[in-house]
Amino acid sequence: MGRKLLLEHINVPGINTLEVYRQKGGYRAVEKALKTLTPDEVVEEVKKSGLRGRGGAGFPTGMKWSFLAKPEGVARYLVCNADESEPGTFKDRYLMTHIPHALIEGMIVASFALGAKTSYIYVRGEMMPQIRILEKAIAEAKAAGWLGKNILGTGYDLELYVQPGGGAYICGEETALLESLEGKRGNPRIKPPFPAIAGLYGCPTVVNNVESIAAVVPIINDGGDEYAKVGIGRSTGTKLISASGNLVKPGVYEIELGLPVEEFIYSDEYCGGIANGKRLKATVAGGSSVPILPANLTLKYANGEPRLMSYESLSEGGFATGTMLGSGGFIAFDEDQCIVRNTWNFARFYHHESCGQCSPCREGTGWLEKVLHRLEYGHGKMSDIDLLVDVSKKIEGNTICPLGDAAAWPVASAIRHFRDEFEWHVKEPVKSLSSNYGIANYAVPIEKKVEEVKQDNS
Amino acid sequence: MLKVEETQPVEFSSALVEKFDEIVSRYPAGKQKSALLPILHLVQAELGWTSPLAMDKVAEYLNIEPIEVYEVASFYSMYFLQPKGKYVLEVCRTGPCCLVGAEKIMDHIEHKLGVKEGEVTADGLFSWRGVECLAACGYAPVLQIGPDYTFYENLTEQSVDTLIDNLKNKQDLRQ
Ligand SMILES: Cc1cc2nc3c(=O)[nH]c(=O)nc-3n(C[C@H](O)[C@H](O)[C@H](O)COP(=O)(O)O)c2cc1C
Ligand code: SF4
Ligand code: FES
Q1: Domain termination residue (choose one: A305, A334, A363)
Q2: How far apart are CA B161 and CA B175, in angstroms?
Q3: Averaged over A25-42, what is the pLDDT?
Q4: In CATH terms, is domain B87-169 a member of 1.10.4080.10?
Q5: NADH-ubiquinone oxidoreductase 51kDa subunit iron-sulphur binding domain location, by residue (chain A) (predicted)?
Q6: Do A166 and B78 touch (CB under 8 A)?
Q7: In chain B, which residues have their Cβ closer than 8 Å to the Cβ of A165?
Q8: What is the pLDDT of residues A410-436, one digit of tens each?
Q9: What ipTM is given for this predicted complex?
């Protein structure tokens, strides 16, 4: 069994209430931080822990906190990013639904470390049930003196509010989120200035993901050094993985970073293998924005070594043969799934969610969707495949925010690894409407594939 | 498309305005515009949509220009700029849900309700539409129904039938 730092008590009845959460040791981190540590010492522990942002980019949390500007007489804000809209990701919803106090406790400790007196949890608007759960938990915590004025008699004041979004993936991007929290359209800001200098209402602001903030609780309880012992290399700690698609047991799993991908997919402790006795064709390992990989490269590097669930191991091989941990949204595709159709579906998503500020993203995502649609529906030309590569290259790196890259990478990687399937859609327009290309040799072990290629060439 | 329909004049009840006031109190003085999104949700829960006249009233309440409300309401996907059915079934149409049959569920709903995406049934009770990932991909296929956004997970054609029938019956009981 892997160590659980966030979900250890998830199955305890009533853990969503303050009473049971307290019985299980909850709010110890608040006591420890507020009574025995200075704000800078809290930041230091988080730095030592090696915690990296769990929202997708993996930026070291302690370092981000230490960048926060602290001009005299200016308010500072902590804003929790609970917009969770990246396709394949549903861990934050799970955490907030079942252990809301873990997030609230983390928010209090983090706000104290940053010197914030008012903090907001920005929750995507569709999660109204979770918003009600959080508001109830905040009321409980406030009534018990964990929030409000002069917390634990330490003189520290904190108000915590939940803010609903309006339904827009782009508001997960931190500057779009801040615009939205100010009551505006969610258009990402041009950086610099970064939020650490000018964020909410122009004041210094830290934006962190739900899971990053919840992870501060075990870090303060056990110490940053202890936390850093869990995991592997620079991927310290545990990570919540949202597993979806054609798996026997989809759901949210807390893993120790460094778990072999194969074990995660096939062992009964985690996903229990591919549903309905089928074979694995491909995976998207870190949410829809990261490159898709065929089954063989999911399980092993190009050199045949096993791939692990960690920031470094998932990106081993770069974009040629690797992917990214991203938000930890792990999507499994079985042998019956059509890569072209899924790529079109994702392109439609990014087109729909583009805020429209930059033309490469606004127009490019529309092109990607259109061209993929005609390939999927039997009207594609061979030249369309290169056109897609060309359009994705023109978006990549030419936009205000990373949504452009996020739209381009899935298309580029699908063509990189599954080009034969795209070509088949052009060659067999009628057949591709009623049947699937199947698994081809995407699951053939890497070593064998390399040998085959050698033989072909000889 | 912003298709402006005639609406009844809108008056917010004092209970509703009290809720608005509480929301505004969450932000620093002068930053009351931050209350816009939460207030629009409350308005839509009350009226079933964010009508132009209601948006004007919100602008007046927040002391901002009406255009600042329109541009926000039209940017975010949750606000309805036209009247919808009493129950709007919003089905996730994104990749992970489609891997386990979301498209079949949408076809089934279309067939069962007899209206196309975005349209309202003749009795005014139902609309449906496809929406993007609802962060519930592990329990797919899923749909949600406002204004409280109750979730229905692991959908099958049978469970959708039961859901729609139950909503219809609930309606009959109320009448
Ligand atoms: C298009 C887009 C969508 C994003 N969506 C989310 C999201 O839903 N949740 C999240 O925590 N971060 C999201 N991010 C990342 C945030 O911009 C930001 O990096 C993150 O909230 C920082 O928190 P962390 O350091 O704790 O990960 C998104 C970024 C982009 C570009
Ligand atoms: S890249 Fe796309 S989503 Fe991001 S700011 Fe530009 S248009 Fe908006
Ligand atoms: S893809 Fe449907 S909930 Fe995420």
Answers
A1: A334
A2: 22
A3: 98
A4: no
A5: 340-385
A6: yes
A7: 37, 76
A8: 999 999 999 999 999 999 999 999 999
A9: 0.95
| Fold of the domain spanning B14-75 | Arc Repressor Mutant, subunit A (1.10.10)
Give whole-number Cα distances, A120 to A162, A165, A200, in Å. 6, 12, 10
Mutation test of ligand 3: which of B106, B131, B133 has the most ligand atoms closer than 8 Å to its C-beta? Answer: B133
pLDDT above 50 (res A406): yes
pLDDT digits (tens, 9 = 90+) for A83-138: 999 999 999 999 999 999 999 999 999 999 999 999 999 999 999 999 999 999 99
Ligand 2 contacts CB of residue A400 (under 6 A) = yes
* Residue among B99, B131, B135 minimizing CB distance to A93: B135
**Residue B118, CA atoms < 13 Å, CB-side half-sphere:** 5
Tens digits of residue pLDDT in B105-132: 999 999 999 999 999 999 999 999 999 9
Same structural domain, A318 and A349: no
Say yes or no: A324 and A403 in one domain.
no
Contacts of B99 in chain A (CB under 8 A): 244-246, 331, 333-334, 337, 342
Same domain? For A79 and A204 the reply is yes
> Are A92 and A188 in a shared domain?
yes
Residue A175 has what pLDDT? 98
Q: Are residues A72 and A171 in the same domain?
A: yes
Taking the CA of residue A212 as reference, the ligand 1 atom at the shortest distance is 26
b/e map of A167-202 (b: 16 or more CB within 10 Å)? Answer: bbbbbbbbbbbbbbbbbbbbbbbeeeebbbbbbbbe
Residues of chain A neighbouring B140 (CB-CB closer than 8 A): 244, 250
Which chain B residue is nearest to residue A166, measuring alpha carbons?
Answer: B76
Does A219 share its domain with A248? no
Closest C-alpha among B135, B165, B140 to residue B154: B140
Domain residue ranges in chain B: 14-75, 87-169
Ligand 3 neighbours by CB, cut-off 6 Å? A 87; B 92, 94-97, 133-137, 140, 142
Annotate A103-156 with DSSP letters as a single string. Answer: HHHHHHHHHHHHT-SEEEEEE-TT-HHHHHHHHHHHHHHHHTTSSEEEETTTTE
* A392 and A364 assigned to the same domain: yes
